[in-house]
Design brief:
Blueprint: E1 15-23, H1 32-45, E2 49-58, H2 69-82, E3 86-89, H3 95-105, E4 108-110, H4 112-123, H5 127-141, H6 145-148, H7 168-203, E5 208-213, H8 219-227, E6 244-250, E7 254-260, H9 270-275, H10 277-284, E8 288-294, H11 300-313, E9 321-326, E10 337-340, E11 346-350, H12 359-372, E12 374-381, H13 386-395, E13 398-403, E14 409-416, H14 417-424
Parallel strand pairs: 1-2, 1-3, 3-4, 5-7, 5-8, 8-9, 9-11
Antiparallel strand pairs: 6-7, 10-11, 12-14, 13-14
Helix pairs in contact: 1-4, 4-5, 5-7, 7-10
Length: about 425
């Protein structure tokens, strides 16, 4: 039996007009051409047929149409000329601006957030992923219902509903609120299951490495290369949404968990970040982040900044991070190498996951990072902690041992910080 979801999306192949303005006060589009190219890629990823692209400069945001009156009428003319079905703005529109634009253009209007939400709805494969996307969509439209229902503000008629009753708009808001509540309950169950899996990994003392990065940077390709898995890979934005975990074995460290996560993007809707909380928790709980970067892109520095902003938003800004400069095969005179910081710790590795170049160096850098953090300390163990003492000896981290008058073991340790935190639950 197939599941029916509250949100039903339009079929692909719609004729769309793209709109992007250089807003003087905005900080997000310092690289106008790169932002426009990414916007076009987003539209294509949503299965849209681009019939016109309208750009311009905007001294200040217009409260009615976002763009000025003249530009708004130019967009309306482009919609009429090309028989467009949809206008996409590479900006955030208020509900009033979107409603005014729809009335003027005579077609549907979506902003950047709605476009990304639509792409996510197409890409989600697992039941959990579909619920997460639907939750984000519903929370996004919950404050915008007035936009589509201004003609239904009348009250419902019929037996028992004549006179004072519930308007269609109120009914829709109630239905949306009920659906949001239902989805959140289901996702809470999923989050509990993920938490159980994480606790199981902690009991097995396995480090967790999470792959993060801008969408289409090559994360899934790298994941497949390291794990010999077959996660879906495509040269398009948000090719994969659902987090995948695999175990791999690294020299001197042993088995570790490698997690492939959803790609980030500039101005990622906050509703998506909230909806994907359980998925992104894999990133927040990681011991090491592999930040994959498209080194061939002219806008790689901006992309790295956008990823780090989202990592800070989910509370993962302080996790140990290794930059993985991917796609060096597309550049001339680039060779695989490890860059070290002032403390001689690996900070950046240059590789090509597609061509299997520099993967051994990446594994070496990961091993160095996870083994260099050594804690030198003395611990006191009670007589009933014999199993813990045995684990410490099995790891080979006990430098010396004595005992005191109360039969406690006093152990001098040289132990990886990772192992120390796991064993002693610091």
């Amino acid at each position: 039996m197939t599941k029916e979801f509250f949100i039903q999306r339009e079929k692909g192949g719609e004729r769309v007009v793209l709109v992007q303005m250089a807003v003087y006060q905005a900080e997000h589009f310092n690289h106008f051409e790169d932002a426009l190219a990414e916007f076009e890629s987003l539209a294509i990823s949503a299965a849209a047929k681009i019939v016109d692209v309208i750009v311009g400069k905007l001294p200040t945001v217009h409260p009615k149409y976002f763009v000025g009156e003249g530009k708004a009428h130019a967009i309306a003319e482009a919609v009429k000329t090309h028989s467009a079905d949809l206008v996409l703005f590479n900006h955030a529109l208020s509900p009033a601006q979107a409603r005014n634009c729809e009335e003027l253009f005579g077609c549907r209007v979506h902003d950047r957030a709605e476009l990304i939400l639509d792409i996510f709805s197409q890409r989600a494969r697992t039941f959990e992923g579909k619920l997460q996307v639907e939750l984000a969509q519903l929370e996004h439209i919950s404050t915008r219902l007035v936009r589509g229902w201004t003609h239904l503000e009348r009250q419902k008629g019929g037996i028992g509903l004549r006179g004072p009753g519930e308007t269609q708009l109120e009914t829709d808001r109630r239905l949306v609120a009920g659906r949001i509540k239902s989805i959140k309950k289901r996702l809470e169950k999923v989050e509990k299951q993920r938490e159980q899996s994480r606790r199981a990994r902690e009991r097995s003392e396995m480090p967790v490495i999470s792959i993060v990065g801008y969408t289409n940077a090559g994360k899934s390709t790298l994941f497949n290369r390291l794990t010999e898995a077959t996660v879906y890979v495509a040269d398009r934005l948000f090719a994969t949404l659902d987090t995948t975990c695999r175990n791999i074995v690294l020299p001197k460290i042993g088995p570790v968990v490698l997690a492939d996560t959803v790609g980030f993007i500039q101005q990622l809707p906050h509703e998506l970040i909230a909806a994907f909380k359980a998925t992104l928790e894999e990133t927040r709980q990681a011991d090491l982040l592999l930040h994959v970067v498209d080194s061939y892109s002219d806008n790689s520095a901006q992309m790295m900044g956008d990823v780090n902003e989202i990592l800070a938003e989910i509370g993962a800004q302080d996790i140990l991070q290794l930059q993985v400069m991917n796609k060096i095969d597309l550049s001339q005179n680039f060779h695989p190498r490890i860059d070290y910081d002032a403390k001689n710790n690996p900070k950046r590795v240059w590789i090509s996951s597609e061509k299997n170049i520099g993967i051994d160096l990446l594994k070496q850098a990961i091993t160095e990072l996870l083994t260099k953090r050594i804690v030198r300390c003395r611990v006191s163990l009670q007589p009933h902690q014999g199993k813990l003492r045995a684990k410490l000896y099995a790891l080979g981290v006990v430098v010396a041992e004595t005992s005191d008058d109360e039969a406690r073991w006093l152990l001098d340790l040289e132990i990886q910080q990772l192992d120390f935190e796991r064993l002693f639950k610091v």
